[in-house]
Structures are given as structure tokens and as C-alpha cells.
From TrEMBL:
Residues spanning the membrane: 45-65
Domain MaoC-like stretches: 11-101
Alphabetical UniProt keywords: Membrane, Transmembrane, Transmembrane helix
Organism phylogeny: Bacteria, Bacillati, Bacillota, Bacilli, Bacillales
Listed InterPro entries: HotDog_dom_sf, MaoC-like_dom
A Pfam match: MaoC_dehydratas
Record has Phosphoprotein as a keyword: no
Protein name as catalogued: Acyl dehydratase
């Protein structure tokens, strides 16, 4: 098993969530309007899941050539809030042959500074 160099992201900000809403077209107010997030029982706004997945994808793109990515799927574990700092960790667990090509298979994890798991995923990249 090979551990990959963690990608450390700066603190999530409310401004970042507003910008991501505009870029993605996901204007659900639980991501941008604090009173709406509070009324929904979330204790404020929460980050878009796809923003966090995008950060995991960014890490994959730093570890491997993007053109070699063959599979990437994730599962969300916990909400992410403004003020949290995230680290994307990864590991290669095995070498496989799929669809006639050699690939590395591994896992990716997004955790906050307290070590709380926000997202876990699996990936495959062509060797």
C-alpha cells in the first residue's frame, strides 16, 4: 500500500460557497443563506457536496495525470461547514487489470482538522 501526499486546502469560507453556487448553478439556499440553513436544522450553511468531491478530484489530478483517471466514486459521511480546513488523503491499495489495461486502484479520504471524515471514495488510474 502506498500513501499519497495529502493535499491541504485553505479554510472553507462563506464567500467560497456563494461563488461555488454561481459557478455550479446550485443555488439551494442551505449553502448560502445562514437563516435558511438554521431554519432547516443545519445550524447554518453547509458546503456543497460536489465542492468537496471536486477537492478530492483536484487531489487525484495532483497525484496522477488527469487523462489516466478511469474511475472515481465517492460517499459523503458528514457535512462540511465554513471555517473548516480540509485535508485530502489517498492511498494506492493494489495493481489490477481492468478492460485490458493495467491500473492502480486506491482510496481517497477528505477529513477536517479534527480528523472527522467528510468523504471517502475509490479510484482507478491507468498505469
Amino acid at each position: 500500500m502506498t500513501e499519497l501526499k495529502p493535499l491541504i486546502k485553505p479554510e472553507i469560507t462563506h464567500t467560497q460557497l456563494v461563488r461555488y453556487a454561481g459557478a455550479s448553478g446550485d443555488f439551494n439556499p442551505i449553502h448560502t443563506v445562514v437563516p435558511v440553513g438554521e431554519k432547516a436544522g443545519l445550524g447554518g450553511v453547509i458546503a456543497h457536496g460536489m465542492l468537496i468531491m471536486g477537492m478530492a478530484g483536484e487531489a487525484l489530478g495532483t497525484w496522477f495525470p488527469r487523462k489516466n483517471l478511469r474511475m472515481f466514486k465517492v460517499r459523503f459521511s458528514k457535512m462540511t461547514r465554513p471555517g473548516e480546513k480540509l485535508a485530502i488523503e489517498g492511498k494506492v491499495s493494489e495493481e489490477i487489470v481492468e478492460e485490458g489495461e493495467k491500473r492502480l486502484a486506491g482510496e481517497v479520504f477528505v477529513k477536517n482538522e479534527k480528523g472527522e471524515l467528510k468523504l471517502s471514495g475509490k479510484f482507478q488510474v491507468k498505469i
